[in-house]
Amino acid sequence: MRVLLVGGTSSLAQTLIPLLRERCELLTAGRKGCDVELDLCSRDIQIPDGIDCVVNLAAAFGGKEPTDILQTMDVNVLGVMKLCHASSKAGAKHLVHISSIFSDLGSASPFFGAYSLSKRHSEDVAQFCGREFHLPVAVLKPSQIYGVGPGFRRHQPFLYTIMDKAQGHEDINLFGSIDPLRNFIHAQDVAKIISAVIAKKIEGTYPCVHPDNVTYSQIAAAAISAFESKSKVAFLKDKPDIPSNGFACDETLFRLLDYFPRISTAQGMQMEAAHRRQAS
After folding, report:
1. Of 29, 30, 125, 236, which has fewest CB within 10 angstroms of its CB?
2. Domain NAD-dependent epimerase/dehydratase: where (predicted)?
3. Tens-digit pLDDT profile for residues 26-37
């Protein structure tokens, strides 16, 4: 099987590539540093012939400025449309688009922004184009992805700041009087899920969140344990409360694949701590 991985330099791609190379002929695609030069903002996108499955990890992550919002829509929505058309034209047999569970957020959510809106539209575009271009499409909606190494820090600054503080034996101060929820899923679990979706040629749209939400205090406790830290945790109750952003787990995809996420937040932090010890 030949697989084209679009967004081939992303952090998730670095976790997925070794897994796919065990059983696929893999080409990476992106604006630079990949086997195939491909920019989702280009007017004309072409992919090589003979590709069985196209996996789209490429994304723009929004912002507040109009130019940032336009770019996010261009990459995440129009880019998906162009990629579906190019895939169909090249004879690809399957396309896997990685969206986000943030697309399910209501517009009143404080976490809803250009990224969420663009991902919501991207899912409709992928399914529409799949139907129009006769291209089987799977859309996966993971929660917040983290993993081992600094590449994941950019998109999960809170999680890595907590680990930094635990590593440095600094006290961890959390704002507000509530203990808000988050949902993190480890990149190794996401990579195995994508690999299984390709192998089973799954079609449809599926949430892909960890079965367990975690609270801020649980995250801090996991970091302290992983780094064998002397840090203490305190809630600054005179500061504004932080809203929760947890998600209920829909097991449909996991049952189809016979694979459930296996790495807890505590285990993920232990993996990161081991990596840092080895690197130091």
Report:
1. 236
2. 4-201
3. 999 999 999 999
